[in-house]
Design a protein that fits this description.
757 residues, elongated, mainly alpha
């Protein structure tokens, strides 16, 4: 295929794999990163994107995950603006488009790595893309492990990071086009590459790893250094004959160096190496120093941005990092690596979450699972040996870069430098998959060359593997279309994962299936007895079913396990209020506010408690606090109007209602309450206007028709009163007081019939 055709083919395969997720819902982490993230709202100042983390929390907050990805959040905000709200289709379409572009660009990246030094300018005019790079790119486009990054909107961070990672790497390669020596390069293109690196980091922190890949490209391809030969000759060389070193190019230097090294001594090998490096260091060492300084500066800036230090994760997020001994930590980390490798090799068992018992810890050296890390390292060492020691330069280069692309982008998620907040995350393998696909494509090509008799069979097997991956991608992206199918799919993969049962239960509760939800919440608590969020949600359901004693017991256990769990304290207060334990309820509410200073819902419930105790001033103050923290808190505004109305403060109630409608101009409940206040003040015309506006918004509100009828009744507009009484009774035949008022009106009309026209 011609270059354009090959890229279009790869993009098309990527599109086919994930197109069925375009009309999916917001699922799993999308609710926190998008639906509940105020930074997406156009009313929020744009500057807040640069102050908050990926989830909308301020970076200085102790609860912040410190994931600083403002450019990704900016694309979410653009989606919001273009769609006119939170409509998931636009978000999904952009994700799919990004994956297609990245897959097409992967042809260029892999072509450079596979073609070697010839790509530096001389391959510029090639009419055909190498088949190996096309095959590797096809494997990449259709790898099922990408589903989380593409079908899950939160995966936008990985996609944007990968895109700018590729652009940074390609511009670094561009710096050497047209030159015949490694010390001749374009400073401008390298500067552009270094500028694209922080752009990738502003999409996701993983973007900094492009500097390591660029350095490897410089050493292995631009300078064509044989690291193994260089090291061996430094350590075990013999006396060197008088051989002159050519000054034409670095590949020539390396070949001359190989001749020198075969017959040199330890004493003279070092001087020969110095001689060679004097010619390469002018360009290579300067560029490596530039990459190192840039990386160090970016890491320093990133650390300063975190403010209060790294995020605090718990043993629930990453149990291996809390293992008792360093030995067990190392063993479990390596076990996680082997599971990640298995996901690349056999991406059939995929799960949206791998925490909370999905991967039980290895607690002793006698656990049979230690075989998997040993097998992983045996394979990995064998791969590195081939990448360094093979006499075939193409094989060395291909396998070396396969290892580089496989390992370097994965390093931030490896727990080597800092603790991460997950066990396994399929999305972090997005870039590493390129290294695996490069090695896989080389293996296919090697087998075709070695077993020529079975070439057709190998081709058929390769096509079958691609077709199977495409089908698996389509199936998995279908599962990501809704939370119901996503969570249900995880039950067979991670039946011991408490979070899976919790999310299935939460989804069932949201759909009204409380009985089924209770079973899954209880299973989540059984699997993880300290799962306070499952206890909290189960307690809420039991509260709604009026099983108050059981709810109180569960919520009390939750706050005992996690004393700073503000939501559980608030819900415990609601239950205690219902049980008439007013003092305990008040203390629970204040505990919730203690641990979450800005908690408008808690102030609202505290106000309800004070209203029940007839502490009207305290109730008004609590509701006022709720509206100050959350100006659109409709219930708090409405309760203040009603309380002022009930206590006879009609003028204040009127002012409060009008103040509320300035903030919530389409809230029919506040219009209804304000209309009642105005009716009591005999401001009939103004009251009528608010009643009618409320009915325009909610025409089936029986109480609104009934109260409007009472207004007309008092006002003397008896025909209109009769009409709205009848509408109210039609909507709700048991509406309190309406039937009595209607009968009273009928008697009045019978006693004073209107004269015929």
């Amino acid at each position: 295929l011609r270059p354009l055709q090959s890229r279009l083919l790869v993009a098309l395969v990527g599109l086919i794999c994930f197109i069925n997720s375009y009309d999916g819902d917001f699922v799993f982490d999308d609710s926190e990163a998008i639906i509940n993230n105020k930074d997406l709202n156009p009313a929020t100042p744009l500057s807040s994107i640069w102050k908050n983390d990926f989830w909308g929390s301020h970076l200085s907050s102790n609860s912040s995950h410190k994931s600083y990805r403002p450019l990704t959040v900016l694309t979410f905000r653009l989606n919001y603006l273009l769609a006119g709200g939170l409509h998931p289709a636009g978000f999904h379409v952009l994700n799919i488009g990004l994956h297609c572009i990245i897959s097409a660009l992967m042809v260029d990246v892999l072509e450079i790595l596979l073609a070697g030094p010839a790509c530096d300018g001389r391959a510029k005019g090639l009419a055909r893309a190498p088949r190996a790079s096309l095959l590797a790119a096809l494997f990449f486009a259709a790898h099922p492990v990408h589903t989380e990054s593409v079908a899950g909107i939160v995966g936008r961070a990985d996609l944007l990071c990968a895109l700018f990672f590729q652009l940074s790497f390609l511009t670094y390669c561009r710096a050497f086009q047209g030159g015949d020596r490694s010390d001749r390069f374009s400073v401008s293109w390298i500067a552009v590459s270094l500028l694209l690196c922080p752009v990738a980091m502003l999409c996701k922190e993983q973007g900094i790893t492009v500097l390591g890949v660029s350095a490897a490209f410089d050493i292995l391809i631009v300078c064509n250094l044989n690291v193994y030969e260089l090291t061996r000759n430094l350590l075990f060389g013999r006396k060197s004959p008088d051989v002159s070193v050519p000054r034409s190019s670095i590949p020539d230097l390396c070949r001359a160096f190989a001749v020198l090294s075969r017959e040199s001594t330890v004493a003279y090998a070092a001087s020969d190496c110095v001689c060679v490096f004097k010619q390469v260091r002018k360009g290579l060492l300067a560029r490596l120093a530039l990459l190192l300084v840039s990386g160090s500066l970016l890491l320093y800036v990133r650390w300063r941005i975190m403010g209060t230090g790294p995020p605090a994760f718990t043993d629930v997020d990453n149990p291996a990092s809390f293992a008792e001994t360093i030995f067990l930590r190392i063993v479990n980390y390596n076990y996680y690596y082997s599971l990640n490798a298995w996901l690349l090799l056999c991406p059939w068992w995929l799960c949206f979450d791998w925490s909370m018992g999905c991967v039980p810890l290895i607690k002793s050296a006698g656990d049979w699972r230690v075989v998997w890390p040993l097998l992983l390292w045996a394979c990995f060492i064998g791969l590195i040996r081939q990448a360094l020691c093979s006499p075939d330069s193409t094989k060395r280069r291909t396998l070396a870069f396969g290892v580089v692309l496989l390992v370097v982008p994965f390093l931030p998620a490896s727990n080597l430098f800092f603790r991460v907040g997950f066990v396994i995350a399929e999305r972090v393998l997005y870039l590493s998959t390129a290294g695996y696909c490069l090695i896989l494509a080389y293996a296919v090509a090697h087998c075709c060359c070695r077993w020529r008799r079975h070439k057709k069979l190998l081709r058929a097997a390769t096509l079958a593997l691609l077709a199977m991956n495409v089908a698996r991608c389509a199936l998995r992206s279908q599962q990501w279309r809704s939370e119901q199918s996503l969570f249900a799919s995880a039950l067979s993969v991670c039946p011991l994962n408490a979070k899976v049962h919790y999310n299935v239960g939460k989804n069932l509760a949201d759909r009204g299936s409380q009985d089924a939800a209770i079973q899954y919440y209880r299973e989540a608590v059984r699997l993880h007895p300290k799962y306070v969020h499952a206890m909290n949600n189960l307690g809420n359901i039991l509260k709604e079913r009026n099983e108050l004693q059981k709810a109180e017991e569960l919520l009390s256990t939750a706050v005992h396990i996690q004393p700073d769990f503000a939501a559980a304290w608030m819900n415990l207060g609601i239950v205690q209020n219902s049980l008439k334990k007013f003092d305990e309820a008040e203390q629970s509410y204040w505990n919730a506010i203690k641990f979450r200073k800005k908690y408008p819902d808690c102030y609202y419930n505290l106000g309800r408690l004070y209203a029940d105790l007839n502490r009207h001033v305290d109730a008004l103050n609590a509701w006022r606090n709720a509206t100050m923290l959350k100006p659109d808190h409709s219930l708090a505004w409405n309760n203040m109007v009603i309380l002022l109305d009930n206590t006879g403060n009609l003028a204040q109630a009127e002012l409060m209602g009008k103040e509320a409608l300035k903030i919530l101009p389409k809230d029919h409940t506040i219009m209804f309450s304000l209309a009642n206040v105005l009716g009591k003040q005999e401001k009939y015309k103004e009251s009528e206007g608010f009643f009618l506006n409320a009915l325009k918004i909610n025409p089936n509100a029986a109480s609104c028709h009934g109260n409007l009828a009472v207004l007309y009744h008092r006002w003397g507009k008896l025909d209109l009163a009769k009409k709205h009484y009848e509408l109210s009774l039609k909507l709700d035949p048991n509406a309190p007081g309406t039937k009595e008022n209607y009968n009273m009106l009928k008697r009045k009309l019978e006693q004073h019939p209107r004269p015929a026209a």
